[in-house]
Amino acid sequence: MSAIRNPKDFWAGLIYIVIGLGAFYIALDYEMGTAVRMGPGYFPRVLGIVLALIGLAALVRSFLRPGEAVGRMAWRAALLVLGATAVFGLLVRGAGLVLSLFVLVLVSACASKQFRLPSTVLLAAGLAVFSALVFLKGLGIPLPLLGSWFGG
User: Fold this and answer.
1) What is the DSSP letter of 132?
2) Per-residue pLDDT tens for 65-117?
3) pTM of the model
4) Where are the alpha helices (DSSP H) in 29-116?
5) pLDDT > 80? residue 151
6) Please, is 125 exposed, middle or buried when counting C-beta atoms within 10 Å of its C-beta (0-12, 13-18, 19+)?
7) Which residues are CB-contacts of 38 (< 8 A; sequence separation ≥ 6)?
8) How far apart are CA 99 and CA 107, in angstroms?
């Protein structure tokens, strides 16, 4: 019998620790700065530490609390979400933020068993408008609203 009582928490904790420590390690070459004047390494290091601590908590919990075994990998859903992200990256310059985000939401929503086209279209439209207002207008991120394919 294994000492691991909750395999889901064990593997999730391990993944968080690896990603957190990886982010921290990558940011070692960046200037840290202070809490008031953050340098480029401040956020990745702090986030890396927080992720690693969350992972450590999940890892410890995996030995203390019983839980379910890890189920089958949902390959179709994973590929749809990863593919949607890649398509977003390929479309964003040419099609602009609004259309590429709309496509991202539609394609990634297909990964869900509860996918319904009408509600997904409303969600995609709402997220596109919200993101345009926050990232383009509010934060001034230099992405085209409508890309070069549409004269933007």
Assistant:
1) I
2) 988 888 888 999 999 999 999 999 999 999 999 999 999 999 999 999 999 99
3) 0.66
4) 42-64, 75-95, 97-109
5) no
6) middle
7) none
8) 12
Listed in sequence order, the residues at least 6 apart from 137 whose beta carbon sits closer than 8 Å to its beta carbon are none
The rounded distance, in Å, linking the Cα atoms of 132 and 7 is: 40
Q: Nearest 10 degrees: CA dihedral of 102, 104, 107, 109?
A: -90
Three-class SS of residue 26? helix
Neighbours of 69 (CB within 10 A): 8
Question: Whole-angstrom Cα distance, residue 19 to residue 41?
Answer: 16
DSSP state of 16: H
Spatial distance between the Cα atoms of 17 and 13, rounded to a whole number of angstroms: 6
pLDDT digits (tens, 9 = 90+) for 39-62: 889 999 999 999 999 999 999 999
